[in-house]
Amino acid sequence: MRVSKAFIPTLKEVPAEAEIASHKLMLRAGLIRKLASGLYTYLPVGWRFIRKIEAIVREEMDRAGALELVMPQLQPIELWEQSGRAKIMGREMMRLNDRNERPFVLGPTHEEIITNLAANEIRSYKQLPKNYYQIATKFRDEIRPRFGVMRAREFIMKDAYSFDATDAGANLSYKAMYEAYTRIFHRCGLDAVPVEADTGAMGGSSSHEFMVPASVGEDQMVRCSDCGYSANLEKAECVAENPSELTGDRTALQPREVLTPGQKTIEQVAAFLKVQPCDLIKTLIYEADGKATAVLIRGDHEVNEVKLKNILGCEELSLANAEVIESVTGGPLGFSGPVGLKNVPLVADISVMSMKVGATGANKADTHLMDVQPGKDFTPLKTADLRVAKDQDICPRCGKKVTLSWGIEVGHCFKLGTKYSQAFNATYLDENGKEQIMIMGCYGIGVTRTAASVIEVHNDKDGIIFPYSVAPYHIALLNLNPSVTPMTEYCEKLYNEFQALGYEVLYDDRDERPGFKFKDADLLGLPIRVTVGERNFNQEMVEVVRRSNKESVLVSQGELIATLSKIKEDLLKELC
Q1: Which regions of 346-420 does DSSP assign to beta strands (E)?
Q2: DSSP label of 236
Q3: How far apart are the first and last CA of the chain?
């Protein structure tokens, strides 16, 4: 492609709306343009980039045995009501009525549609296993679209769905997708870490997220460098630390009231009572599907509401307001405690029940209780891991320390089990002619999110640094003086020769200053730059630059093709 004929509207200034590197660079390099909040047009070079990622996804999905199809984006809401997710998805799902006032949704995902298809088309175990996939546009009414295409309201996603006759078969399908994902992200130049994750609104028994470590990530992951355990923050398991050894006889202790006027926060109460936050038992009143529940957590910990929601088995969960708290506990907000609570079930984190003694609210204004002993002065209905993991926590697998870091979710694999196949009566006849429920898995990759992640990871102060495998073009060919006829003829010869050899070339044939061309080339970040300048040309030399390290070499015109071949080989090895 000749730059003079292309459409690459680069920008000198950083757009005010852009917050992170990938968003800034996709706008500045002319890859995208904003239409409205969370809606973007992919310009020609940006679309080539997306297509390169899609090609890798297709190759690896086909290699894993998946079958590509395309499903409607406009979906009858009845299918979502049949699965029970119309309510769960809530306002995030784009909804509309047709001219006959029939309700539809714009698909945020396609579990309902593919399961309906399988239920109608698959009859026998001989037709299983099957894995279908598509690469298509999805729609989600994000409450706060941000970070460009990283969190948009319209985005491109690869989603796949497996159907198996047995649990063993479903595990093999899951393994095949897990391995395919590992290859996909590696080929895209991303060090994507598979971490255990909560299944959320998707349902199912277990799942893995693939997360790219990045400081701008919206999710956190817990990792153990000793045993390899990894999980996202919602799923990360926590173990009860060993309680401090307390001296003296505690069997005769009784809870005693201490006046704490105006002391409501954990920090205020701990300082006033001359104890540590870890010595406090924090009591939070939640409403789970409208029913009040008291949740106990150690003072230096925070409640993991995903874990809590799973333990309680509720769909809606929120902190109770001051009026509900007072009606349940008899005391005001900030002074709740488990001792003497009778009208509300208690659910305690395991760390609370490992405490020998602690302090907590007395369910009275300006009053706390000291010398409270879990298991003696209160007994919870349930005890479970309910807290948010922290940096340097104990690893639940090996007992060493874990670290907490930020990451970008680029893919997710779910073991769905029979959640959707039961709802849609997706059955098959086994070898004995008996009807059985199909076992499902689903597997998503955010294609546009992956694109943003590639740029987020591969950039410097001058612009993008495209990995060779996903670069919109492989070579930026710069003619620094198009008015010199012999140079232009040579550049034309190179342009044609490179393409004949399989290189995709962006030929800057514009009549612009060399500095302008260099800046655009660095901003766009193609893997290899070949520069033909008048002085070097007169010496039959050509400059070749690797964008990844800006390593520049002068080679003779006769050695140019061999040099490019070696650089290409090296760049591809970097992905292996």
Answers
A1: 346-349, 358-361, 367-372, 382-384, 403-417
A2: -
A3: 29
Segment 202-205 long-range contacts (CB within 8 Å, at least 24 positions apart): 202/109, 202/111, 202/414, 202/416, 202/442, 203/414, 203/416, 203/417, 203/419, 203/420, 204/414, 204/415, 204/416, 204/417, 204/419, 204/441, 204/442, 205/415, 205/416, 205/417
* Amino acid identity, position 302: E
- The answer for residues whose C-beta is within 8 angstroms of residue 516's C-beta and 6 or more apart is none
Cα separation, 232 vs 223, in Å, equals: 9
Q: Tell how far CA 526 is from the center of its chain.
A: 26
Nearest residue to 341 via CA among 298, 295, 288, 387: 295
Dihedral sign for Cα atoms in the order 60, 63, 64, 68? positive
Rounded CA gap, 244 and 275, in Å? 13
Residue 84 exposure: Cα atoms within 13 Å on the Cβ side: 10
Please give the Cα distance from 127 to 130 (Å, whole number): 7
Read off the pLDDT of residues 464-475 as tens digits, 9 standing for 90 and up: 999 999 999 999
Q: Which of 477, 451, 450 is nearest to 6 (CA)?
A: 477
User: For the chain, which domains are there?
Assistant: 46-236+405-455 (3.30.930.10), 256-384 (3.90.960.10), 473-573 (3.40.50.800)
Q: What is the largest CA-CA distance in the chain?
A: 100
How do residues 50-101 score in pLDDT, each as one tens digit? 999 999 999 999 999 999 999 999 999 999 999 999 988 888 999 999 999 9
Amino acid at 286: Y
Q: Tell me whether strands 528-532 and 475-479 are parallel, antiparallel or unpaired.
A: parallel
**Residue 448: closest CA among 39, 83, 122:** 39
8 Å CB contact between 299 and 266? yes
pLDDT, one tens digit per residue, over 294-346 is 999 999 999 999 999 999 999 899 999 999 999 999 999 999 999 999 889 99
Whole-structure pTM over 0.85, yes or no?
A: yes
10 Å CB burial of residue 317 (0-12, 13-18, 19+) is middle
- pLDDT surpassing 80 at residue 397: yes
Residue 248 above 50 pLDDT?
no
User: What is the rounded CA–CA span in Å between residue 72 and residue 58?
Assistant: 19
